[in-house]
Design brief:
The protein is mainly α. The chain has one domain. Helices cover 80% and strands 0% of the residues. Helix 1 runs parallel beside helix 2. The longest helix has 31 residues. The chain is elongated. This is Inner membrane transport protein. It comes from Salmonella enterica subsp. arizonae. Keywords: Membrane, Transmembrane, Transmembrane helix.
Length: 80
Amino acid sequence: MVDGNVIDVPHAVLHSAALSFLGFGLAPHEPSLGLLLADALRFISHGNWWLGAVSGANVIHAGYALRSVRARRSAAVAKE
């Protein structure tokens, strides 16, 4: 049960970020990775490309960090 939930967490984070980036997620005043990307997108046209790069790297890092937690958890369950 726990292992199945850990598998779904990275997908939930990335789906939440995608929906809020497109404007279908959280309200604009609530913190979200997708809203961070959407705000950075406005500044890219002004030459501030690093805002989008750092925001995108944060989303990718969150996905990989949660995926590594899942892999460690699966390995620990397999050992038992």
